[in-house]
Amino acid sequence: MMRLTLWYQESLIEKLTRYVFFLFVVIEMPPPSSGSGSGTGTGKGNPPRGLQKKKRVRTARGRKNSSTRWLQRQLNDPYVAEAQRQGYRSRAAFKIIQLDEMFGLFKKGRRIVDLGAAPGGWTQVAIEKVKPRETGGIVVAIDYLEMEGIEGATVLQKDFTEDDAPDMLKQALGGGADVVLSDMAPPTTGHRATDHLRITALAEMAYEFAREVLEPGGFFVTKLFQGGAEKTLLDALKRDFEKVKHVKPNASRKDSSEMYIVGQGFRG
Question: Of residues 131, 170, 223, 245, which has the active-site annotation?
Answer without folding.
Answer: 223
